[in-house]
Amino acid sequence: MPPLHALAIFAAGIAAGGINTLVGSGTLITFPILLAFGYAPVTANVSNTIGLVPGSVAGAIGYRRELAGQRRRAIPFAAASAVGGTVGAVLLLSLPASAFKDIVPAFIVVALVLIVLQPRLGRALEARRSREGHEAGPLAVLGVFASGIYGGYFGAAQGIMLLAILGLSLPSEHLQRINALKVVLAGLVNLIAGIIFVFAAHVAWLPALLIAVGSIIGGIAAARWGRRLPPAALRAVIVVVGISAIVRLV
Question: Which of 9, 110, 116, 147 has the fewest CB atoms within 10 Å around its CB?
Answer without folding.
Answer: 110
